[in-house]
Amino acid sequence: MSTNIKISPSILSADFSKLGEEIISLDKAGADYIHVDVMDGHFVPNITIGPEIIKKLRPVTKKIFDVHLMIEPVDKYIKDFADAGADIITFHPEATPSTEETIELIKKFNKKVGISLKPKSDISLIEKYLEKIDLILIMSVEPGFAGQKFMPDVLPKLKKLKEIITEKKLKVDLEIDGGINFENCKTAINAGANVLVSGSTIFKQNNGDLKKNISLLRSS
């Protein structure tokens, strides 16, 4: 099972003074995706990076840019992130007046579509769109800051979505993000996650040995 697990390191925990080098190192260390958290200080209480930075980073790796938009309104920026080089564009249903239209807009730019659920967001917000999307991102912390503690109470939501996806034979990835470490990643995988986002653990554990940390998360 563990061989199918994809690791998406969050660059929120990287050294921003040498971000390009950090991404090259993640690429060499065996990351599957590069997870980019985009925050606007409005939808979530923090501000991170915009499309211009992503555009500058795009040439340094061919890895999939897994871009999580924690911004509102989301639609007016999708073209910018698509043009900048995002491969997967994930948004929150609470950040758009029409989830369906946002899905179609992302598809218009030939990008994969992800929808994210905050810890308190219900499956009902996304259930009817599962056949139209590629990825569900379950937040296991309140979005907005790196380094928070994993919230195990999101696991039943993950299990339920896995059951629905299996029952309907859908090709939808289940990604989890928030406080993922070497211990709780096993629980998340057992609940149905096949993509793990991790920041602090990958960049800080084992003296920052990226390859070792990515490998440990994947083989759990």
End-to-end C-alpha gap: 9 Å
The helical percent reads 25-40%
Beta-strand content:
15-25%
Main sheet properties: 8 strands, parallel
**The first-level CATH class name:** Alpha Beta
Low-confidence stretches: none
Largest sheet strand order: 1-8-7-6-5-4-3-2
* Number of strand segments: 8
Count of individual domains: 1
Find the CATH superfamily: Aldolase class I
Whole-number mean pLDDT: 96
> Within the CATH hierarchy, at the fold level, what is the topology?
TIM Barrel
By secondary-structure content and strand pairing, the structural class works out as alpha/beta
Shape: globular
Radius of gyration: 16 Å
Secondary-structure element order, as H and E?
EHEHEHEHEEHEHEHH
**Number of helix segments?**
8
Q: What is the second-level CATH architecture?
A: Alpha-Beta Barrel
Record the SSE blueprint.
Blueprint: E1 6-9, H1 19-28, E2 33-39, H2 51-57, E3 64-70, H3 75-84, E4 88-91, H4 99-108, E5 112-117, E6 135-139, H5 155-167, E7 173-177, H6 184-191, E8 195-198, H7 200-204, H8 210-218
Helix pairs in contact: 2-3, 5-6
In words, what does this structure look like?
The longest helix is centred in the last third of the chain and has 13 residues, at 155-167. The chain has a single domain (2-218), classed as Aldolase class I (TIM Barrel), CATH 3.20.20. The protein has 220 residues and is of the alpha/beta class. The termini are close together. The radius of gyration is 16 Å and the shape is globular. It has helices spanning 19-28, 51-57, 75-84, 99-108, 155-167, 184-191, 200-204, 210-218; strands spanning 6-9, 33-39, 64-70, 88-91, 112-117, 135-139, 173-177, 195-198. It contains eight helices and eight strands. The chain has an eight-stranded parallel beta sheet with strand order 1-8-7-6-5-4-3-2.
